Structure formats: C-alpha cells, structure tokens
C-alpha cells in the first residue's frame, strides 16, 4: 500500500513509518516539523507543510496515489490544552477536517486516526472499555473526541472508513536503537526518569502520593510504541478488507504506579534515580488501565512488549545513546 502518514516525524508517527517500511509499504510523510524531527524518519518521502494548507495537500495527493491515511498530526500536551484550548480545537480539529476534505476530493477511503485515553476523562470502570462514558477533562481529549465524531459523519456522508485508536501511555523506543522519544519540553514520565538517570536532571518529581491507589501514586497502562504501530497496520488492513469503522483501546491491560515505574527504571539502569514527592498535577486521573480485548479479538493485535522492564530497556537503550535526543 502507499500510505500517507500525517505527523510522521513525531514520536509515534516515526515508529509507524519505520514499521510500515519494515513491512514493505510505500510511505509518504506530511509533517510541519513543529514538534517532529526530520532525523526520526528512517525512510519514506517527506513533505514539509501544514495540514491546513490546501496547496500542500493537493500536491501530496496529486503527486502520489495514496491508498490510505494514518493521522498523528496534533498538538498533544494536556496542560497546554487547558491553558490554550482554542489552539487545540483549531489545530487538532481544523487540520483533520482539511485532511478529510482532501481525502474526499481525491477519493481516498481509509483512515486510521490517533485518538487517546484522554477521551474518557475520569473513568467509570477499570479496565476501561470502548463503550464506557467519554467525558474528557481537558481540551486535548475533547479535541480528539470531536474528531472521532466528525469521522463518524464523514463515513456516513462520504464512505470514508475509519478506525480510531485510543492509546493509553505510549512509551519505549524502536529495538533498532535508531529512533525514540524526544519531546521539547519533555513532560512524559519515562523519558524524564531516564533523563534523571543520565544526570540531565537532578531528580524526578512524583506528582502526588495521596491518590486512591495502592501506593498513593497514579497508575497508568504503559504500551510500547512499536506495538501501537503494529495495531495501526492491522486496523488499515481490516478496513481494506471491508471492515466497518470502529474504535479500539490500545494498552497492555496492566497498571503500574509512578513509584513502580521509577523502581523498574532503577533496576534496568542500575542507577539509584533520585525521586521526590511533589504536589498533584492538575487533571491527572488516579488510575487509567485499558481493556484491549476488542483490539486483540477483532484486529488480531498481539503486543510484543508486554513487560514494563523490556519497554524501559528499549527506551534506556535510546536515551543513553542519544543524550541530546535528535539534536546533533
Ligand atoms: N508524572 C510524574 N512526574 C513527572 C511526569 C509524570 O509523577 O515528571 C506522573 C503523572 O502525574 C502521571 C504519570 O506520571 O500520573 C504519567 O504521566 P505522563 O505525563 O507520562 O502521561 P499521562 O498519563 O499524563 O498522559 C498520557 C499521554 C497523553 C494522554 C493521557 C491520557 O501522554 O497524551 O495519557 O490521559 F492524553
């Protein structure tokens, strides 16, 4: 297949591009490189530009016979979205609308959309099922939920079939050691812990130890980025085989507390990473754990990295060999 990956130079996007290339697909990347890194692309044809720019979309779709689209292009900082909601609604919803218009114009009928556990907000049940209540507690989650709804109507009106994948905590790095996680500024737990291990930070601050969890720190479901990539390709293949539009959770179905993640990272690195308890971070639910049974059953998804230790090993392998991320 010839697949357009929007936001392909980002953390999850770049692992998607690598996975598609490994599986013999042709890859076209559209990325404005605002948060993505050119060096994270292990191949494919890159177009640098914004999804909201009709000209670049016309160029991409006329120069390439695209079979399907995978869309990762979005702003994704929860905290920033609370401070600047319009940026998130404008960019995350607006750019997907432009993309869908182009898909309709050029008769491209399949899209896999990068959604999030943040669509659920405070969960009603653990593990979380796809049919559970969606009530986002921040504009980032709200913008992704809005796109899911837009996709539903575009399916009805234009026959564009979609799969929305709601990721839990994406983490880890490619086992080839060439690509990994580099956000600026970094806000995610595992890279922050590993930066502390490397002496790039003095310590890690644990945001709250008075949650209603076993050790009082937040519990999350950590899922390897390459496993997320494999689910996207399975979802595309399913759509191409006539599958209906659907939504799936992607997680490992196991929860780890922040303290447990720090402990596993200490074990993997052999370094006594310093940690200190700090105030809660606004908007953090106590526990988020996915049920991914639907993806396992219907997509035939088999996550390979189901131990936190191996996931952190892959991240550690990348971080210790890329002390400044993608910066030369
Ligand atoms: N945490 C710390 N210290 C840090 C960073 C994080 O204690 O320095 C804690 C957070 O409070 C949270 C856990 O570690 O309890 C994980 O935090 P991350 O920022 O790594 O991830 P989140 O669970 O906040 O966010 C993830 C995705 C988002 C998505 C969200 C859905 O990264 O894109 O899940 O709720 F929106």
TrEMBL record:
Q: Which UniProt keywords apply?
A: Carbohydrate metabolism, Galactose metabolism, Isomerase, NAD
Enzyme class name:
isomerase
Q: Which GO terms describe its biological process?
A: galactose catabolic process via UDP-galactose, Leloir pathway
EC number(s) from the headed UniProt entry: 5.1.3.2
Instruction: Look up the record and name the pathway of this protein.
Output: Carbohydrate metabolism; galactose metabolism
The protein's GO terms of the molecular function aspect are: UDP-glucose 4-epimerase activity
Residue ranges occupied by any NAD-dependent epimerase/dehydratase domain in the UniProt entry: 3-251
What Gene3D superfamilies would the database entry show? NAD(P)-binding Rossmann-like Domain, UDP-galactose 4-epimerase, domain 1
Known cofactor(s): NAD(+)
**CDD domains documented for this protein:** UDP_G4E_1_SDR_e (cd05247)
Summary of subunit composition and partner proteins? Homodimer.
Entry's family note: Belongs to the NAD(P)-dependent epimerase/dehydratase family.
Q: What is this protein called?
A: UDP-glucose 4-epimerase
């Amino acid at each position: 297949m010839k697949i357009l990956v929007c936001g392909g130079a980002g953390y999850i996007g770049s692992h998607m591009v690598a996975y598609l290339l490994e599986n013999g697909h042709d890859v076209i990347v559209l990325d404005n490189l605002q948060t993505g890194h050119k060096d994270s692309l292990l191949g494919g044809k890159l177009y640098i530009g914004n999804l909201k720019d009709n000209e670049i979309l016309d160029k991409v779709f006329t120069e390439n016979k695209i079979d399907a689209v995978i869309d990762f292009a979005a702003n994704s900082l929860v905290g920033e979205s609370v401070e600047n909601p319009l940026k998130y609604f404008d960019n995350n919803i607006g750019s997907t609308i432009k993309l869908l218009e182009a898909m309709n114009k050029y008769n491209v009928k399949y899209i896999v959309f990068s959604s999030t556990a943040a669509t659920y907000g405070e969960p009603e049940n653990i593990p979380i099922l796809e049919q559970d209540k969606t009530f986002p507690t921040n504009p980032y989650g709200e913008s992704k939920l809005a796109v899911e709804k837009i996709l539903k109507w575009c399916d009805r009106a234009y026959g564009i079939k979609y799969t929305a994948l709601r990721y839990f905590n994406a983490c880890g790095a490619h086992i080839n050691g060439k690509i990994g996680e580099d956000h600026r500024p970094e806000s995610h737990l595992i890279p922050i812990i590993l930066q502390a291990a490397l002496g790039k930070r003095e310590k890690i601050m644990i945001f709250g130890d008075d949650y209603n969890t076993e050790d009082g720190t937040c519990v999350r479901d950590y899922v390897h980025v390459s496993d997320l990539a494999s689910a996207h390709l399975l979802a595309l293949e399913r759509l191409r085989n006539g599958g209906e539009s659907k939504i799936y959770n992607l997680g490992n179905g196991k929860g780890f507390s922040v303290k447990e993640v720090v402990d596993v990272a200490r074990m993997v690195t052999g370094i006594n990473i310093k940690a200190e308890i700090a105030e809660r971070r606004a908007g953090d639910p106590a526990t988020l754990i996915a049920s991914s049974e639907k993806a396992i059953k219907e997509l035939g998804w088999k996550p390979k990295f189901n131990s936190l230790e191996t996931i952190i090993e892959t991240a550690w392998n990348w971080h210790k060999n890329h002390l400044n991320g993608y910066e030369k």
